[in-house]
Q: What sequence folds into this?
């Protein structure tokens, strides 16, 4: 536990000292929420205010941005630079290192969610969640599942140079198709069909139902099951293919 807490503090310092990582995974969802909320925050989307609808979507976007994209890029860069290989030669157990990295990502996402809710309340008068425990469970499920997918993706990306391009080519279209920014009900049929198999679609639906309609997390078994299933798939791939050493050129 002492090693874990020490490494967790170190991971937090590394995250906030990396300006690019902190901006694109933490600040970008906040900025987009403020901009999009200013554009259609007073409109009505699916029977609710646009700002309230958007807030739940941006929480989902923040989750995939932080726990999936940011984590995958970070692990690929550290692996290809030989950092992960050198860590294996230290007294720090590999499981403790990975636990600290994942916990750091979850903490960042939790803070990001609090910032989004605060901005929504102060700038757009969005309602505060009335099911905070269910929301916390849903957010933890999403963070863990997308983190597992992020670790899995990091094992498939072959170079640090291509990490950003590969990850961005996946998570940005997924965020759009899943309805993080707009209602997916207005999308063409082929995009709706794609959205219906994406984990982010169900995570955003879960968060929206809890935040906007007062649902409990156990009232949404389908959404919970789909998000958990994708997380389990990511875990299996990560366990089977995660690498500590740089790939041979």
A:
């Amino acid at each position: 536990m002492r090693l874990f807490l020490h490494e967790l503090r170190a991971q937090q310092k590394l995250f906030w000292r990396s300006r690019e990582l902190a901006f694109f995974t933490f600040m970008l969802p906040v900025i987009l929420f403020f901009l999009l909320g200013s554009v259609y925050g007073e409109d009505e989307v699916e029977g609710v205010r646009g700002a309230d609808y958007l807030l739940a979507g941006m929480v989902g976007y923040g989750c995939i941005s932080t726990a999936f994209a940011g984590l995958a890029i970070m692990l690929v860069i550290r692996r290809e630079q030989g950092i992960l290989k050198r860590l294996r030669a230290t007294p720090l157990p590999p499981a403790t290192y990975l636990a600290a990295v994942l916990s750091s990502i979850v903490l960042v996402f939790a803070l990001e969610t609090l910032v989004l809710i605060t901005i929504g309340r102060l700038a757009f008068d969005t309602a505060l969640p009335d099911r905070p425990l269910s929301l916390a469970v849903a957010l933890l499920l999403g963070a863990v599942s997308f983190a597992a997918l992020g670790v899995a993706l990091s094992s498939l990306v072959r170079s640090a140079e291509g990490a950003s391009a590969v990850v961005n080519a996946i998570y940005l279209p997924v965020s759009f198709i899943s309805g993080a920014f707009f209602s997916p009900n207005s999308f063409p049929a082929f995009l709706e069909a794609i959205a219906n198999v994406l984990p982010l679609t169900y995570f955003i639906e879960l968060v929206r139902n809890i935040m906007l309609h007062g649902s409990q997390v156990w009232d949404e078994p389908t959404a919970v099951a789909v998000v958990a299933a994708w997380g389990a798939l990511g875990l299996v791939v990560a366990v089977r293919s995660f690498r500590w050493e740089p790939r041979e050129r």
